[in-house]
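Quick note —
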Amino acid sequence: MKKNDIINLEVTALTSEGSGVGRHEGMAVFVPKTAVGDVIEARIVKVLKNYAYGIIERIVTPSPDRINNDCPAFGKCGGCVYRHITYTAELAAKAQTVRDAFERIGGLSPEFLSICGSEQTERYRNKLQMPLAKPDSGEIVSGFFSERTHRIVPVDDCKLQPMIFSRIVEFVKQGCKKLKISIYNEQAHEGVLRHVYLRRGHASGELCVVLVVKRKVPEFKRLAAELSRNFPEIKAVVLNVNPDKTNVILGERETVLCGNANIVDSMCGISVEIAPKSFYQVNTPQAEKLYSQAAEFAEPYRKTLLDLYCGIGTIGLSMAAQADRVIGAEIVPEAVENARQNAQRNGFSNAEFICADASEAAAELAERGLKPDVILLDPPRKGCDEQTLSACVKMNPERIVMISCNPATAARDCKFLSENGYSVEKVRAFDLFPRTRHVESVVLISRKKSTSI
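Predicted structure written out below.
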């Protein structure tokens, strides 16, 4: 097999990245935008030692899972990978991704509960980060970066975002044109406006608009006033200054142009305040189901809970009414302040929050002799480091409940725990990001009966 060969291929599985895979002459061939059951002619675009990559040349026999894609940016913007198959097929693929990670990477055999699908598969996101660009000649472009590039694919209306987000972005673009606010050019490191960053409370409908800029210019105050006047849902317009030549979206300095930067929402029956930089799950109804499963695994009644990577405190506070004590740790200062305010707002006097890296907080608490009954872990995609996991083991809780957005690192971390006195008992996948490759999981990890520390 060599580049530009056209081969016949039957797609037999989907990878965790969303590509179809089949075998030709014993070699695995990966083809994006295919479905299990497709019989295709594929053009080979890259050949490596043990596998190859291809693109669809012609669909000979379509899979019964196939549906018509309804987004012109599909396959270009680096977002959705499953707009061409049924949601049932997508859920099956995601459930298999989680199972494969735990069995193959972790070498584990927990009980796999059925995946929890999302009732809403479109317009579900409560957060948008959209870069802007302006070609040398032409109108301002907004959209998303093409996968593995910094080339913006124009997207006027992303079907995963509420329609009001698209209207606000368009208003900002027209406002920049009217007020002569320049658009940032990444290559030249020139211009002013870099990103439009939006957050919305699912229950409250409150909106915060963050304009990410290279530098402040006075015209932004006028733009903020016009945004607030035209969109009554907007509770704040914030200027975030990022002067660096970097891939990081948000800078360190913020100025509130109007309103209050923190929006209020409801999560699991508790009122929460959310700062622009604070982590908050993007699919609120699904997050509530996720946290409900975590509580079922944690059995928090009259127990001490340690909530590592706690963000604004939503997971721990969702269990605080049943628990004796909740201690949260989070590295982002704004999120810690939100967590403290959220505990006070909801009348929880049994919750406290520490501003520290999860590994440092876990090690410090272990040294202080804290003996939590349950540890809640909700790490970023890179997972937990060994220092954090070792400190958790040292505290010897009855159970650990892990929420993960990356099955591979979750399986790796659970393998470590299984080798250090714990048993990985149950795993349930949750789809918080329909049509994308991402999948969450909740894991119940219990202390082995024979463990003595």
